[in-house]
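Human: I hope this is not a bother. Would you mind checking the protein record under this note? Thank you for your patience.
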Amino acid sequence: MAKPTESELKLIQELKNKISDLELLSDEFLDPKNLIRFIRVKNGDVNAAEVMVRENVKFYESHDIEAVLTAEYPKDFYEFWPSYILAVDDDGGPIAHVPLGKWDSQAYSKNKEEYFLYNLKGFETVWGLQLKNSKGKDYIPGFSIIVDLEGLGWKQYRCYDGINGILRLLRLFESTYPETLKKAVIVNAPSIFGLFWKLVRPIFSEATQKRITVLGGDKTEWIKSISEFAKPNQFPKHYGGEVNDREQNIPVEEVAKFRNYVFRSKTLSKNG
């Protein structure tokens, strides 16, 4: 994310004034490089940004993020819904890899809330790395992601719980982590993916949609798109890079660490 401009700093101050009753918000949360996310996703509408901030705060009030990040989940969760952090780009932004085509939608049906918290842990891990790598900078580095749909088929599409679980996660991402995505490259998109994309696309803001590239099985196109945010030594050979498959892949759960981000204390804000 680019640092706030002079005109954006004025909007940020307006936003700060509107949420001044939330006295327990941390300095980290109130930092212009964080609040600018809400201003930008709402195209400069401070009132809309205020609503989004309050909803964001309520979400964190209602979830014990420390517990989520330190929780241990069954090993089969990582097998059924794998996700990885591959590397960190030159700006400090994490590069993630999600082999979505391998996700077991049927398994999700049996443990909906646990899988939700497991994926929340993944979101918070990536976001925590972004915050950590923003120290000393006037911007928060965006993250990039390679989503591989190899193996995706009608079995997943026909699973009502699985599809709704993914939609729930995407809504969570767009509402809780706005303007954190630098680039998403979706590869191995089958023809039936168009049906799913019609459900997904309206969830994302216009800005987010522009950062998503959907590709088929042409590896030449993969390399071109992935090379926009990653160097060859930062992604696997399978996608045109130089790293042996899974050589640098770090399971999300292994890098999860709690960081005090929203509140100065664990006490709820006044508007809770």
Summary: The chain is about 45% helix and 10% strand. The longest helix spans residues 112-132.
